[in-house]
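3.2 Worked example (two chains)
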Amino acid sequence: MTDFTSDAPLVRNRTAPPKREYYAYFTLIFLATLPLAFLTWTLSAARQMQLPEKGPFAKAWTQARIITPHIFNA
Protein backbone atom coordinates (compact mmCIF):
# COMPACT_ATOMS: atom_id res chain seq x y z
CA MET A 1 0.00 0.00 0.00
CA THR A 2 1.32 3.46 -0.93
CA ASP A 3 1.32 6.38 1.48
CA PHE A 4 0.49 9.54 -0.48
CA THR A 5 0.30 11.83 2.54
CA SER A 6 4.04 11.98 3.17
CA ASP A 7 4.95 13.37 -0.27
CA ALA A 8 1.90 15.51 -0.85
CA PRO A 9 2.61 18.72 -2.75
CA LEU A 10 2.37 21.89 -0.69
CA VAL A 11 0.28 23.80 -3.20
CA ARG A 12 -2.48 25.93 -1.78
CA ASN A 13 -5.12 27.34 -4.00
CA ARG A 14 -6.28 30.70 -2.79
CA THR A 15 -9.13 32.40 -4.46
CA ALA A 16 -8.34 36.07 -4.14
CA PRO A 17 -10.74 38.58 -5.63
CA PRO A 18 -9.46 40.34 -8.73
CA LYS A 19 -7.71 43.62 -8.08
CA ARG A 20 -9.81 45.40 -10.69
CA GLU A 21 -12.95 44.61 -8.71
CA TYR A 22 -11.35 45.86 -5.48
CA TYR A 23 -10.24 49.11 -7.12
CA ALA A 24 -13.69 49.59 -8.64
CA TYR A 25 -15.35 49.25 -5.23
CA PHE A 26 -12.68 51.44 -3.64
CA THR A 27 -13.29 54.18 -6.20
CA LEU A 28 -17.05 54.05 -5.75
CA ILE A 29 -16.77 54.18 -1.97
CA PHE A 30 -14.20 56.97 -2.12
CA LEU A 31 -16.45 59.06 -4.35
CA ALA A 32 -19.45 58.34 -2.12
CA THR A 33 -17.66 59.38 1.08
CA LEU A 34 -16.02 62.46 -0.42
CA PRO A 35 -19.01 64.85 -0.12
CA LEU A 36 -19.65 63.90 3.51
CA ALA A 37 -15.94 64.17 4.35
CA PHE A 38 -15.85 67.62 2.75
CA LEU A 39 -18.93 68.69 4.71
CA THR A 40 -17.56 67.47 8.05
CA TRP A 41 -14.17 69.04 7.31
CA THR A 42 -15.84 72.39 6.51
CA LEU A 43 -18.00 72.31 9.64
CA SER A 44 -15.02 71.34 11.80
CA ALA A 45 -12.94 74.16 10.34
CA ALA A 46 -15.74 76.68 10.90
CA ARG A 47 -16.33 75.53 14.46
CA GLN A 48 -12.67 75.53 15.52
CA MET A 49 -11.63 78.52 13.37
CA GLN A 50 -8.59 76.60 12.12
CA LEU A 51 -7.97 73.93 9.51
CA PRO A 52 -8.08 70.30 10.73
CA GLU A 53 -4.99 68.11 10.38
CA LYS A 54 -6.55 65.82 7.77
CA GLY A 55 -8.14 67.28 4.70
CA PRO A 56 -11.36 66.02 3.14
CA PHE A 57 -9.55 63.85 0.59
CA ALA A 58 -7.48 62.15 3.29
CA LYS A 59 -10.59 61.49 5.38
CA ALA A 60 -12.49 60.04 2.41
CA TRP A 61 -9.44 57.94 1.46
CA THR A 62 -9.22 56.57 5.01
CA GLN A 63 -12.91 55.71 5.06
CA ALA A 64 -12.64 53.92 1.71
CA ARG A 65 -9.61 51.97 2.99
CA ILE A 66 -11.65 50.86 6.01
CA ILE A 67 -14.93 50.01 4.25
CA THR A 68 -13.69 48.24 1.09
CA PRO A 69 -11.94 45.29 2.81
CA HIS A 70 -15.08 44.70 4.87
CA ILE A 71 -17.01 44.10 1.65
CA PHE A 72 -14.52 41.50 0.46
CA ASN A 73 -14.25 39.74 3.83
CA ALA A 74 -18.00 39.29 4.14
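3.2.1 Second chain
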Amino acid sequence: MRKERGRGATNNRACTRFNTLHQEVDGDWVDERELVDGEIPRLRTTVTVLHPRTIITRNNSPDIPFTLSINPFSGCEHGCIYCFARPSHAYHDLSPGIDFETRLFAKPGAAALLRKELSKPSYTVAPIAMGTNTDPYQPIERDWHIMRDCVAILAETQHPLLITTKSDRIVRDIDLLAPMAAKGLVSVMVSITSLDPHIAMTLEPRAPAPRRRLAAVKALSEAGIPVVMSISPVIPAITDHEIEALIEAGAEAGASHASFIPLRLPHEVAPLFGAWLDAHYPDRADKVMAIVRSLRGGRDNDPNFYGRMRGSGPWAELIRARFRIACRKNGLNREPMRPLRCDLFKAPAGDQFNLF
Protein backbone atom coordinates (compact mmCIF):
# COMPACT_ATOMS: atom_id res chain seq x y z
CA MET A 1 0.00 0.00 0.00
CA ARG A 2 1.29 3.47 -0.86
CA LYS A 3 2.46 5.87 1.80
CA GLU A 4 0.11 8.80 2.47
CA ARG A 5 1.96 12.08 2.44
CA GLY A 6 1.72 13.70 5.86
CA ARG A 7 0.41 10.57 7.60
CA GLY A 8 2.18 8.20 9.97
CA ALA A 9 0.65 4.78 9.31
CA THR A 10 1.39 3.12 6.00
CA ASN A 11 -1.83 1.09 5.91
CA ASN A 12 -5.40 1.10 7.14
CA ARG A 13 -6.02 -2.55 7.93
CA ALA A 14 -9.13 -3.12 9.99
CA CYS A 15 -8.89 -4.39 13.54
CA THR A 16 -9.75 -8.05 13.97
CA ARG A 17 -10.20 -7.97 17.75
CA PHE A 18 -13.41 -5.94 17.85
CA ASN A 19 -14.38 -5.36 14.22
CA THR A 20 -17.90 -6.44 13.36
CA LEU A 21 -18.63 -4.39 10.25
CA HIS A 22 -15.54 -5.02 8.16
CA GLN A 23 -16.19 -5.73 4.51
CA GLU A 24 -13.73 -6.70 1.79
CA VAL A 25 -13.02 -3.78 -0.55
CA ASP A 26 -11.90 -4.12 -4.14
CA GLY A 27 -8.45 -2.59 -3.94
CA ASP A 28 -8.14 -2.18 -7.71
CA TRP A 29 -11.38 -0.18 -7.78
CA VAL A 30 -10.17 2.06 -4.95
CA ASP A 31 -6.87 2.70 -6.75
CA GLU A 32 -8.64 3.55 -9.99
CA ARG A 33 -11.02 5.93 -8.22
CA GLU A 34 -8.16 7.77 -6.53
CA LEU A 35 -6.18 8.05 -9.75
CA VAL A 36 -8.94 9.82 -11.71
CA ASP A 37 -7.42 12.70 -13.70
CA GLY A 38 -3.97 11.47 -12.72
CA GLU A 39 -4.08 12.98 -9.23
CA ILE A 40 -4.02 11.30 -5.82
CA PRO A 41 -6.22 13.29 -3.43
CA ARG A 42 -4.80 13.86 0.03
CA LEU A 43 -6.72 12.38 2.90
CA ARG A 44 -8.80 14.94 4.77
CA THR A 45 -9.40 14.84 8.50
CA THR A 46 -13.01 14.40 9.59
CA VAL A 47 -14.39 15.02 13.07
CA THR A 48 -17.44 13.32 14.57
CA VAL A 49 -19.07 14.70 17.70
CA LEU A 50 -19.43 12.35 20.67
CA HIS A 51 -21.93 12.87 23.48
CA PRO A 52 -20.65 10.82 26.44
CA ARG A 53 -22.57 10.76 29.70
CA THR A 54 -19.45 11.30 31.77
CA ILE A 55 -16.04 12.78 31.01
CA ILE A 56 -13.74 11.69 33.85
CA THR A 57 -12.19 8.26 33.33
CA ARG A 58 -10.92 6.27 36.30
CA ASN A 59 -8.19 3.65 36.33
CA ASN A 60 -6.47 1.53 38.96
CA SER A 61 -3.35 0.53 37.02
CA PRO A 62 -0.54 0.22 39.60
CA ASP A 63 2.17 1.56 37.26
CA ILE A 64 0.35 4.76 36.25
CA PRO A 65 0.80 7.78 38.57
CA PHE A 66 -2.78 9.05 38.32
CA THR A 67 -6.28 7.64 38.79
CA LEU A 68 -8.36 10.26 36.97
CA SER A 69 -8.08 11.39 33.35
CA ILE A 70 -9.98 13.25 30.64
CA ASN A 71 -9.68 12.66 26.91
CA PRO A 72 -11.23 15.54 24.90
CA PHE A 73 -10.61 13.68 21.63
CA SER A 74 -10.50 10.16 20.26
CA GLY A 75 -7.93 9.55 17.56
CA CYS A 76 -5.03 11.95 16.95
CA GLU A 77 -4.02 13.83 13.85
CA HIS A 78 -0.38 13.95 14.93
CA GLY A 79 -0.11 10.46 13.45
CA CYS A 80 2.68 9.16 15.71
CA ILE A 81 3.34 5.67 14.39
CA TYR A 82 4.26 4.31 17.83
CA CYS A 83 1.16 5.64 19.64
CA PHE A 84 -0.09 3.07 22.14
CA ALA A 85 -3.59 4.61 21.87
CA ARG A 86 -4.07 3.49 18.27
CA PRO A 87 -5.82 0.22 19.22
CA SER A 88 -8.56 2.17 21.01
CA HIS A 89 -9.93 3.21 17.61
CA ALA A 90 -11.05 -0.36 17.15
CA TYR A 91 -13.84 0.34 19.63
CA HIS A 92 -15.30 2.65 16.99
CA ASP A 93 -14.98 -0.18 14.46
CA LEU A 94 -12.25 1.78 12.70
CA SER A 95 -8.67 0.95 11.81
CA PRO A 96 -5.86 1.81 14.25
CA GLY A 97 -3.95 2.79 11.09
CA ILE A 98 -4.90 5.73 8.88
CA ASP A 99 -8.40 5.95 10.41
CA PHE A 100 -6.85 6.76 13.79
CA GLU A 101 -5.17 9.80 12.22
CA THR A 102 -7.96 10.99 9.94
CA ARG A 103 -11.32 9.98 11.44
CA LEU A 104 -11.36 11.79 14.75
CA PHE A 105 -13.95 12.19 17.49
CA ALA A 106 -14.47 15.28 19.63
CA LYS A 107 -16.36 15.83 22.88
CA PRO A 108 -17.49 19.47 22.83
CA GLY A 109 -19.62 18.93 25.94
CA ALA A 110 -16.58 17.97 28.01
CA ALA A 111 -16.39 21.18 30.06
CA ALA A 112 -20.07 21.06 30.98
CA LEU A 113 -19.75 17.41 31.99
CA LEU A 114 -16.63 18.22 33.99
CA ARG A 115 -18.40 20.98 35.90
CA LYS A 116 -21.28 18.60 36.63
CA GLU A 117 -19.02 15.83 37.89
CA LEU A 118 -16.92 18.14 40.05
CA SER A 119 -20.14 19.41 41.64
CA LYS A 120 -21.16 16.01 42.98
CA PRO A 121 -20.93 15.72 46.76
CA SER A 122 -19.33 12.30 46.34
CA TYR A 123 -16.46 13.63 44.21
CA THR A 124 -13.01 13.02 45.70
CA VAL A 125 -10.21 15.30 44.54
CA ALA A 126 -7.16 13.82 42.82
CA PRO A 127 -5.01 15.21 40.00
CA ILE A 128 -6.73 14.89 36.63
CA ALA A 129 -4.41 13.87 33.78
CA MET A 130 -5.04 15.11 30.25
CA GLY A 131 -3.11 13.93 27.20
CA THR A 132 -2.57 10.41 28.48
CA ASN A 133 -4.36 8.76 25.56
CA THR A 134 -4.41 11.20 22.65
CA ASP A 135 -2.99 14.72 22.54
CA PRO A 136 -5.41 17.36 23.89
CA TYR A 137 -3.56 20.04 21.91
CA GLN A 138 -3.65 18.29 18.53
CA PRO A 139 -4.50 20.49 15.51
CA ILE A 140 -8.30 20.32 15.82
CA GLU A 141 -8.09 21.92 19.29
CA ARG A 142 -7.40 25.19 17.47
CA ASP A 143 -11.04 25.30 16.37
CA TRP A 144 -12.80 23.26 19.06
CA HIS A 145 -11.23 24.78 22.24
CA ILE A 146 -12.30 21.75 24.27
CA MET A 147 -9.03 21.52 26.16
CA ARG A 148 -9.01 25.22 27.00
CA ASP A 149 -12.60 25.06 28.24
CA CYS A 150 -11.72 22.16 30.54
CA VAL A 151 -8.58 23.90 31.83
CA ALA A 152 -10.71 26.97 32.58
CA ILE A 153 -13.03 24.89 34.77
CA LEU A 154 -10.09 23.34 36.62
CA ALA A 155 -8.52 26.76 37.11
CA GLU A 156 -11.79 28.15 38.43
CA THR A 157 -12.18 25.33 40.95
CA GLN A 158 -8.46 25.23 41.84
CA HIS A 159 -8.27 21.58 40.84
CA PRO A 160 -4.88 19.87 40.28
CA LEU A 161 -4.01 19.06 36.66
CA LEU A 162 -1.38 17.00 34.83
CA ILE A 163 -0.90 17.68 31.10
CA THR A 164 1.03 15.64 28.53
CA THR A 165 1.46 17.02 25.02
CA LYS A 166 3.82 17.25 22.07
CA SER A 167 2.26 20.48 20.80
CA ASP A 168 3.38 24.05 21.30
CA ARG A 169 -0.30 25.01 21.17
CA ILE A 170 -0.24 24.66 24.95
CA VAL A 171 1.47 28.06 25.10
CA ARG A 172 -1.91 29.57 24.19
CA ASP A 173 -3.18 28.59 27.64
CA ILE A 174 -0.35 30.00 29.73
CA ASP A 175 -2.73 32.69 30.97
CA LEU A 176 -4.70 29.92 32.72
CA LEU A 177 -1.83 27.60 33.61
CA ALA A 178 0.60 30.11 35.14
CA PRO A 179 -1.72 31.15 38.00
CA MET A 180 -2.46 27.47 38.64
CA ALA A 181 1.26 26.70 38.77
CA ALA A 182 1.80 29.51 41.29
CA LYS A 183 -0.58 27.61 43.59
CA GLY A 184 1.04 24.23 42.98
CA LEU A 185 -1.87 22.97 40.88
CA VAL A 186 -0.34 22.02 37.54
CA SER A 187 2.55 20.16 35.95
CA VAL A 188 3.22 19.79 32.22
CA MET A 189 5.05 17.05 30.36
CA VAL A 190 6.25 17.95 26.86
CA SER A 191 7.15 15.02 24.62
CA ILE A 192 10.14 15.37 22.28
CA THR A 193 11.37 12.10 20.82
CA SER A 194 13.96 13.39 18.35
CA LEU A 195 15.78 16.59 17.47
CA ASP A 196 16.25 15.45 13.88
CA PRO A 197 13.57 17.09 11.68
CA HIS A 198 13.57 14.16 9.25
CA ILE A 199 13.09 11.53 11.94
CA ALA A 200 10.43 13.64 13.66
CA MET A 201 8.60 14.18 10.38
CA THR A 202 8.31 10.46 9.69
CA LEU A 203 7.66 9.40 13.30
CA GLU A 204 5.15 12.16 14.13
CA PRO A 205 4.18 13.68 10.77
CA ARG A 206 1.67 16.27 11.98
CA ALA A 207 3.15 17.14 15.36
CA PRO A 208 4.99 20.46 15.74
CA ALA A 209 8.68 20.43 14.88
CA PRO A 210 11.12 19.69 17.74
CA ARG A 211 12.37 23.28 17.85
CA ARG A 212 8.81 24.53 18.41
CA ARG A 213 8.30 22.07 21.26
CA LEU A 214 11.55 23.19 22.87
CA ALA A 215 10.34 26.77 22.54
CA ALA A 216 7.16 25.72 24.35
CA VAL A 217 9.23 24.19 27.16
CA LYS A 218 11.08 27.49 27.47
CA ALA A 219 7.88 29.58 27.46
CA LEU A 220 6.19 27.38 30.06
CA SER A 221 9.25 27.31 32.30
CA GLU A 222 9.68 31.08 32.12
CA ALA A 223 6.01 31.41 33.15
CA GLY A 224 6.76 29.40 36.31
CA ILE A 225 5.05 26.22 35.13
CA PRO A 226 6.91 23.00 36.08
CA VAL A 227 7.94 21.14 32.92
CA VAL A 228 8.98 17.52 32.53
CA MET A 229 10.83 16.63 29.32
CA SER A 230 9.63 13.26 28.02
CA ILE A 231 11.77 11.50 25.42
CA SER A 232 9.31 8.62 25.18
CA PRO A 233 9.41 6.37 23.42
CA VAL A 234 13.08 5.62 23.02
CA ILE A 235 13.29 3.63 19.78
CA PRO A 236 16.37 1.40 19.41
CA ALA A 237 18.52 2.17 16.35
CA ILE A 238 16.19 5.06 15.41
CA THR A 239 16.25 7.61 18.25
CA ASP A 240 18.30 6.05 21.07
CA HIS A 241 21.47 7.78 19.85
CA GLU A 242 19.84 11.11 20.76
CA ILE A 243 19.24 10.46 24.46
CA GLU A 244 22.04 12.73 25.66
CA ALA A 245 21.28 15.50 23.16
CA LEU A 246 17.58 15.46 24.01
CA ILE A 247 18.22 15.72 27.75
CA GLU A 248 20.68 18.56 27.22
CA ALA A 249 18.25 20.45 24.98
CA GLY A 250 15.42 20.02 27.46
CA ALA A 251 17.55 21.27 30.35
CA GLU A 252 18.69 24.30 28.35
CA ALA A 253 15.04 25.09 27.57
CA GLY A 254 14.15 25.06 31.27
CA ALA A 255 12.79 21.60 32.03
CA SER A 256 13.40 20.53 35.62
CA HIS A 257 12.75 16.81 35.16
CA ALA A 258 12.90 14.21 32.41
CA SER A 259 11.39 10.79 31.78
CA PHE A 260 11.47 8.01 29.22
CA ILE A 261 9.79 4.72 28.30
CA PRO A 262 11.27 2.21 25.85
CA LEU A 263 9.16 1.60 22.73
CA ARG A 264 5.90 -0.25 23.40
CA LEU A 265 4.03 -2.07 20.62
CA PRO A 266 0.66 -3.24 21.98
CA HIS A 267 -1.88 -5.05 19.78
CA GLU A 268 -2.19 -3.49 16.30
CA VAL A 269 0.68 -1.07 16.91
CA ALA A 270 3.24 -3.85 16.32
CA PRO A 271 2.30 -4.61 12.68
CA LEU A 272 1.77 -0.91 11.95
CA PHE A 273 5.22 -0.09 13.29
CA GLY A 274 6.72 -2.99 11.35
CA ALA A 275 5.20 -1.67 8.12
CA TRP A 276 6.51 1.81 8.94
CA LEU A 277 10.02 0.40 9.42
CA ASP A 278 9.83 -1.39 6.09
CA ALA A 279 8.77 1.84 4.39
CA HIS A 280 11.21 4.27 6.04
CA TYR A 281 14.11 2.20 7.43
CA PRO A 282 14.31 -1.05 5.44
CA ASP A 283 18.08 -1.13 6.00
CA ARG A 284 17.64 -1.68 9.75
CA ALA A 285 14.09 -2.98 10.23
CA ASP A 286 15.22 -6.41 11.38
CA LYS A 287 17.79 -4.92 13.75
CA VAL A 288 15.24 -2.58 15.34
CA MET A 289 12.72 -5.36 15.95
CA ALA A 290 15.41 -7.69 17.30
CA ILE A 291 16.37 -5.10 19.92
CA VAL A 292 12.72 -4.35 20.73
CA ARG A 293 12.11 -8.06 21.36
CA SER A 294 15.20 -8.24 23.55
CA LEU A 295 13.68 -5.40 25.60
CA ARG A 296 10.31 -7.17 25.79
CA GLY A 297 11.20 -10.70 26.82
CA GLY A 298 11.39 -12.04 23.27
CA ARG A 299 8.03 -10.60 22.20
CA ASP A 300 6.95 -7.52 20.29
CA ASN A 301 5.32 -6.24 23.46
CA ASP A 302 5.32 -6.91 27.19
CA PRO A 303 1.85 -6.03 28.57
CA ASN A 304 2.68 -6.72 32.21
CA PHE A 305 2.41 -3.93 34.76
CA TYR A 306 5.70 -2.18 35.53
CA GLY A 307 7.59 -4.21 32.94
CA ARG A 308 5.75 -2.48 30.10
CA MET A 309 7.10 0.89 31.25
CA ARG A 310 10.69 -0.20 31.90
CA GLY A 311 11.72 -2.98 29.60
CA SER A 312 14.21 -5.66 30.63
CA GLY A 313 17.56 -7.07 29.65
CA PRO A 314 20.91 -5.52 28.71
CA TRP A 315 19.48 -2.98 26.27
CA ALA A 316 17.02 -1.69 28.86
CA GLU A 317 19.79 -1.37 31.45
CA LEU A 318 22.02 0.47 28.99
CA ILE A 319 19.27 2.96 28.11
CA ARG A 320 18.50 3.56 31.78
CA ALA A 321 22.17 4.11 32.61
CA ARG A 322 22.64 6.59 29.77
CA PHE A 323 19.46 8.41 30.77
CA ARG A 324 20.52 8.69 34.43
CA ILE A 325 23.99 9.96 33.53
CA ALA A 326 22.59 12.52 31.09
CA CYS A 327 20.09 13.79 33.67
CA ARG A 328 22.77 14.06 36.34
CA LYS A 329 25.11 15.91 33.98
CA ASN A 330 22.40 18.42 33.04
CA GLY A 331 20.91 18.90 36.50
CA LEU A 332 17.57 17.19 35.87
CA ASN A 333 15.66 14.98 38.33
CA ARG A 334 17.68 16.29 41.26
CA GLU A 335 14.63 16.14 43.49
CA PRO A 336 11.32 14.28 43.24
CA MET A 337 8.48 16.17 41.61
CA ARG A 338 6.40 17.99 44.18
CA PRO A 339 2.92 16.50 44.50
CA LEU A 340 0.15 18.74 43.25
CA ARG A 341 -2.07 20.32 45.87
CA CYS A 342 -5.54 18.90 46.38
CA ASP A 343 -6.51 20.99 49.40
CA LEU A 344 -7.45 24.14 47.48
CA PHE A 345 -10.32 22.62 45.52
CA LYS A 346 -13.64 24.44 45.61
CA ALA A 347 -16.54 22.64 44.02
CA PRO A 348 -18.37 24.69 41.39
CA ALA A 349 -21.75 26.01 42.42
CA GLY A 350 -24.64 23.86 41.23
CA ASP A 351 -27.23 25.20 38.83
CA GLN A 352 -29.68 25.70 41.65
CA PHE A 353 -27.45 28.38 43.18
CA ASN A 354 -27.50 30.37 39.96
CA LEU A 355 -31.14 31.26 40.69
CA PHE A 356 -30.18 33.46 43.64
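3.3 Remarks
The chain has a mean pLDDT of 90.
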